[in-house]
């Protein structure tokens, strides 16, 4: 997908617009399966929260992916995209028992991370297989908002509560078929991840009817040139050997599961915006674009750096710009960033826009959410229409106050 392809997409579908490269998604999926090729049974549950467009879900299904979901709505999207219930795992946090039971009724794998909920569910539904989410109390993740395995996290059942967990399982007679952890996103240190894995292996020994062990995900992708990333190949080599050894010790082959989201789709995505104006102040040159944190909140929310390229003038002389949005609050995408000289009307491409971009978008300032396009087999396919005023008004009710 060239810059000319991107310019044409923006011309055909307007800006701002999200564009996803199917070939990159496929190469990332293959990279993971290759890294863990020595494991007899591998299952990759794509994390729907990263990008929930049903065409993206359908494409991943064609590659062989299963799904990781955190809400009944994500489960329903997965079913709509053609996934079998058996290929969907549901890992909620803080939801009602009614929602969990509704998902269980669909035949989806349930994953529980709360002792109270575990006891209630096991008492009422002892024959429904359940996975248990363990909190290993291992800190991982590039930002406090995405570090979920530490001792103060709201996620998972503390590894130190294992005796109580086992009493609940014994008293209810419930069937535990999986054990799970997720330490956090942007894993930098493989040894820390392997350390957490050992805690999960030790926990797994307490259950005799396991079918799978789910190690979550959180693999880091590069956001700029020279950026560090998770060494998937090294992790695959080390964890595969350890997992195979554990299966021998356990007495049968289990499935090794992961839940990659960002790793599969982040680098496949580009977010195209148009420059509305160039504004020179006493200290800064602003490039004002036709978007804001209503469409791409990650730089403001997580402090993430998204590489920005001027695809209208890619070989121009570089100058320093602060790229800002059109929202009525500070929405700075980049401060004093070196970018090829920008003129009004140019198109800028934000890299790494395939994950947690559209799914975190909003209608703040009553702005429309953009279109989404999938680049597949050398062609652009519209997979979500740009919103209209009708979409904003659809569920609103105008009261008569006269």
Describe this protein's structure.
Residues 24-266 form the Orn/DAP/Arg decarboxylase 2 N-terminal domain. With 402 residues, the chain is of the alpha/beta class. It has two domains: 22-265, Alpha-Beta Barrel (TIM Barrel); 269-353 and 370-385, Beta Barrel (Lyase, Ornithine Decarboxylase, Chain A, domain 1). Helices cover 30% and strands 23% of the residues. The protein has helices at 3-13, 22-35, 54-63, 72-80, 97-105, 115-124, 162-172, 190-204, 232-250, 262-265, 298-301, 389-393, and strands spanning 17-21, 42-47, 66-69, 88-90, 109-112, 130-135, 157-158, 176-180, 212-214, 255-258, 269-280, 285-289, 308-310, 318-324, 332-340, 347-350, 371-376, 379-384. Strands 1, 11, 12, 13, 14, 15, 16, 17 and 18 form a nine-stranded mixed sheet that branches. An eight-stranded parallel beta barrel has the order 2-3-4-5-6-8-9-10, surrounded by five helices. Helix 5 (97-105) links the parallel strand 4 and strand 5 (109-112). Helix 2 crosses helix 3 (54-63), helix 6 runs parallel beside helix 7 and helix 8 packs parallel to helix 9. The chain is globular and about 70 Å long.
